[in-house]
Amino acid sequence: MKGKKIMFVGDSLSMNQYESLLCMLHAAAPNSNITRLAREWIRSVTLWDYGVSIMLFTSHYLVDIQQDKIGRRVLNLGSVSSGNLWKQMDVLIFNTWLWWYRKGPKQGWNYIRDGKIISKDMNRMTAFTKALRTWAKWVDSSVDTRKTSVFFQGVSPAHYNVRSGAAWGRPGVRDCSNETKPIAGGLTQSVVPLALKVQQDIIGSIRKPVHFLNITAMSYMRKDGHPASHNGLGGMDCTHWCVAGVPDTWNHILSTILIHSGKRGKESKKLPRQTLAHK
């Protein structure tokens, strides 16, 4: 990857993977000469000894949030204006899902636009699907995949809700606070997130090569891998992941694909469109 630009695009789970990769690179090259930059939406670290830049572009929904004439934030399901920057990268790793069901003060928009219709709200799974289709059309129409390798990170599971404890044989347990071992067994069809199925269907429809990092089943087993109450912020965090930990495995899979693809050459790439991490 010498001389290349790698960018993660997404929410705080993308930041989780970005920070994991930086830690892994620092462990491999602890004395490398680096430069750090931080702007409103972009962070980057450049390892000058290798000419590699690792970047994070914060985008909770991938599609645009635009302000109208009276200052309202409008989530536009049909617009991806940041794509002009993204397509300049050599590697793109996209992710979105965590913010789609947030309401109240944590909701990042006031209205939602679907074509010419602007409404106060709509079915969130429908909105997520439409936004992902917009992103998929952008990949097909705008990204030169001979230059840019495109990845999409699947749903990262959380381990706190009414059903959590029951899923690992402890009914009534609602979070991961005292968990020290992985779940025995894998992700069953009864608990496969609908969002994962939507991602698989839409990414499978893209004409250009996109690697789907299907990390859901593997990560689901790791109820012991979250910061829980040890996050330095107070409260319970069973959504994000400890570093070192689960995101390191995501990055091992990512780096393996990049190395393998580089050996074969972009024109003769024969890797599967989906990378089934749980296998």
Task: Tell me what you see in this structure.
With 279 residues, the chain is an alpha/beta fold. It is built from seven helices and twelve strands. The chain has helices at residues 12-28, 83-86, 124-142, 164-167, 194-205, 216-220, 246-264; strands spanning 5-10, 34-38, 42-47, 52-58, 64-67, 73-76, 91-94, 111-114, 117-119, 149-153, 210-214, 274-276. The strands form two sheets. Strands 2-3-4-1-7-10-11-12 form an eight-stranded mixed sheet, with helices on both faces. It has a four-stranded mixed sheet with strand order 5-6-8-9, covered by helices on one side. Helix 1 (12-28) packs across helix 7 and helix 3 runs parallel beside helix 5 (194-205). The longest helix is centred in the middle third of the chain and has 19 residues, at 124-142. It is globular. The chain starts with a strand and ends with a strand.
